[in-house]
Specification:
With about 350 residues, the chain is an alpha/beta fold. The protein has helices at about 5-10, 10-15, 20-25, 30-35, 45-65, 70-85, 115-125, 140-145, 210-215, 235-245, 255-265, 295-310, 310-320; strands spanning about 95-100, 100, 105, 130-135, 155-160, 165, 170-175, 175-180, 200-205, 225, 250-255, 270-275, 285-290. It has 3 domains: about 5-85; about 95-170 and about 290-320, Periplasmic binding protein-like II (D-Maltodextrin-Binding Protein, domain 2, 3-Layer(aba) Sandwich), CATH 3.40.190.10; about 175-275, D-Maltodextrin-Binding Protein, domain 2, CATH 3.40.190.10.
Length: about 350
């Protein structure tokens, strides 16, 4: 029996239902799987073999449908049932699409919170571990990773983005203003505070805080940093917080996870001010989900179950990294007692 058939289960069930016609398709699986594994894109050999097996199973299912052409009603019902078994998701390893150098989210050393949550989800969904396809999280990220079937899940994706199918959200956070603890701006609660009128603020271009500064006529005094970069060579958030440490800017406007991470790395720690009191203007707060392919319904449901059953553990990981978690009423979420 081919190795991919032993490891996946779903192709085996699908092929066995097809009878002798599918069995003949299965007979060539070893050669095709070995060929495909040699051209896999940053996936393990075992993952490439399993993916090749899943694709062959899909071809066999199509063959079954044609073989039953004399009974179209039966063929349609059979193929509908088989389709549920043919999601191209690795059942042994959690194959994650990730940025190779985007702390505190992820890196190739596995040090980000998305890396830690991936390890948790892999364990809770009964997988042996985690493998990665790394690609800078900018233009082309989804197309070259998830949609290319090089991996099966993006660990962090804003709810409602149509590039992926979202799981249920597993945290909610917001853009934030970061200032030194001894700054006269440390008790600011909104970008509408007049004390910010003369402040030198760092902001990532194209983000909601940049839009708000522009509406208030303050963008001319701001120091902009690039949004879409190759994180392997450019680090705009790190540059912005280095400028804050050097006193070249008075405050930094950043996405919540970045804000919390750099604030707690500073000595002494900086103050993180979640932007939850902005009247009008663009939204600052977002629910974050995992992103999967639209076809992978069963996989999505298994991830939703893992999220629901392990929410406290997920929160603990995020809080360890300083992520400013907020609930639906914009109130801060802290650690569960005990």
């Amino acid at each position: 029996m081919p190795a991919w058939e032993v490891e996946t289960g779903a192709p085996s069930r699908a092929l066995s239902r097809c009878g002798e016609r599918s069995a003949s398709a299965r007979g060539g699986a070893d050669h095709a799987a070995v060929s495909l594994s040699a051209t896999g894109h940053r996936t393990s050999g075992r993952s490439a073999l399993r993916l090749a097996g899943l694709r062959l199973a899909a071809i066999a299912v199509a063959a079954c449908g044609f073989g039953a052409i004399g009974h179209p009603g039966a063929a349609a019902a059979q193929n509908q049932s088989l389709a549920a078994d043919l999601e191209l998701v690795d059942p042994v390893m959690l194959r994650v699409c990730a940025d190779p150098n985007n702390m505190p989210l992820s890196n190739e050393a596995g040090e980000g919170y998305e890396n830690k949550i991936a390890e948790l989800i892999a364990e809770k969904t009964g997988r042996e571990g985690v493998t990665y396809t790394f690609f800078p999280q900018g233009v082309g990220f989804v197309r070259n990773t998830l949609r290319a079937f090089q991996c099966d899940v993006i660990m962090g994706f804003a709810q409602g983005n149509e590039l992926v199918q979202n799981t249920n959200p597993y945290f909610r956070t917001t853009y934030a203003l970061v200032v030194p603890a001894d700054s006269p701006l440390a008790d600011v609660t909104s970008l509408a505070d007049p004390r910010l009128d003369d402040a030198r603020l760092g902001v990532v271009a194209g983000t909601p805080p940049a839009t708000t500064l522009a509406k208030r006529g303050l963008i001319g005094k701001a120091r902009p940093y690039h949004l879409m970069v190759d994180t392997r060579v450019e680090h705009p958030n790190a540059d912005m917080f280095a400028d804050l440490e050097a006193g070249e800017i008075d405050g930094a406007l950043a996405w919540g996870p970045m804000a919390g991470w750099y604030a707690q790395k500073a000595e002494p720690h900086h103050v993180v001010i979640p932007l939850t009191h902005e009247a009008g203007g663009p939204r600052m707060s977002y629910r974050i989900t995992m992103g999967v392919r639209p076809s992978d319904q069963e996989f999505k449901r298994s991830l939703n179950t893992a999220i629901r059953e392990n929410q406290d553990a997920i929160n603990a990981i995020l809080l360890d990294y300083g992520v400013p978690l907020i609930d639906e009423a914009d109130q801060p979420i802290t650690r569960t007692p005990g």
